[in-house]
């Protein structure tokens, strides 16, 4: 269900851009960011930090959004880059290209731009798991030189 806790909260504090607030310039953040007002600039999550941005109600962003988790139920005039999960709720309006690893789109949501799937980032945990997993016997036979299987 869109807008539910499924998108999750990330640990850390929540920053609110309230409905009567306008921010002019880029906004860099970590943790939870809820936008009910207007941001005229890019919204950028700190690299390698858990982060979620929600544009809710009459919230509006005039610039690009770059965050692992993004929930839009307002308006975005710019590109959206969501490395993990993007939720477009029924009142979402995006004028720009959307790049996502996982997309959930509700009836009524609108995107005026391209939808482009991207590969999700590989976490350090996944890298360690791959390194510690022995190769599959079938895979090893496929890559062994002829006559050495």
TrEMBL record:
InterPro entries, sorted: BacA/B
Family: Belongs to the bactofilin family.
Pfam families: Bactofilin
Region (Disordered): 115-149
PANTHER family: HYPOTHETICAL CYTOSOLIC PROTEIN, POLYMER-FORMING CYTOSKELETAL PROTEIN
Stated name of the protein: Cell shape determination protein CcmA
Organism: Parahalioglobus pacificus
